[in-house]
Automatic annotation (TrEMBL):
It comes from Macrococcus equipercicus. Belongs to the peroxiredoxin family. BCP/PrxQ subfamily. Thiol-specific peroxidase that catalyzes the reduction of hydrogen peroxide and organic hydroperoxides to water and alcohols, respectively. Plays a role in cell protection against oxidative stress by detoxifying peroxides and as sensor of hydrogen peroxide-mediated signaling events. Its EC number is 1.11.1.24. InterPro entries: AhpC/TSA, Peroxiredoxin_AhpC-typ, Peroxiredoxin_BCP/PrxQ, Thioredoxin-like_sf, Thioredoxin_domain. The active site is at 39 (cysteine sulfenic acid (-soh) intermediate). Residues 1-149 form the Thioredoxin domain. Pfam families: AhpC-TSA (PF00578). This is thioredoxin-dependent peroxiredoxin.
């Protein structure tokens, strides 16, 4: 499956499209909200490993429904080392089946289910990790990139 066409705004107001992913491997990781404990741990983990991804020519993008301003504050506060994209109206998340009914503390609500996609240079989704466990994400991604799983 190819990643669908998209145009998402980053924290600087620049638009990122699927066409900018052509010719390189990319990671798109979808997360529920900026500045929550697990989402912060995930963004910090990607930042701590950003040199590994850069050395392999892999671009990392975090995606949530939060606003540009929230993304800017999140990046500044936690020194995030990559672009965060605004999935306004959860359009891309819905197309990928990532925006789902979730249950938390006995309440049901629609939201992004933590998901990571490895996108190949031809825009094919090489690997999809659903319901990501943050503490295991780097090992899972590197194993997939190295062809171990």
């Amino acid at each position: 499956m190819k990643v669908p066409a998209f145009q998402l705004e980053n924290q600087h107001g620049e638009f990122i499209t699927e066409q900018q992913l052509l010719g390189q491997t990319s990671i798109l990781y979808f997360y529920p909200r900026d500045n929550t404990p697990t989402c912060t741990a995930q963004a910090v983990d990607f930042t701590e490993h950003i040199e590994y991804f850069a050395a392999k020519g892999i671009q990392v993008y975090g995606i949530s429904g939060d606003s540009r301003k929230k993304h800017q504050n999140f990046i500044t506060k936690h020194h995030i080392g990559f672009d965060l994209l605004v999935d306004d109206g959860f359009k891309l998340s819905e197309q990928l089946g990532i925006y789902q009914l979730k249950k938390s503390f006995g309440k049901e609500a629609m939201g992004i289910v933590r998901t990571t996609l490895i996108i190949g240079p031809d825009l094919e989704i090489m690997r999809r990790f659903d319901k990501v466990k943050v503490k295991e994400q780097f090992d899972d991604i590197t194993a997939a990139l190295e062809g171990q799983s």
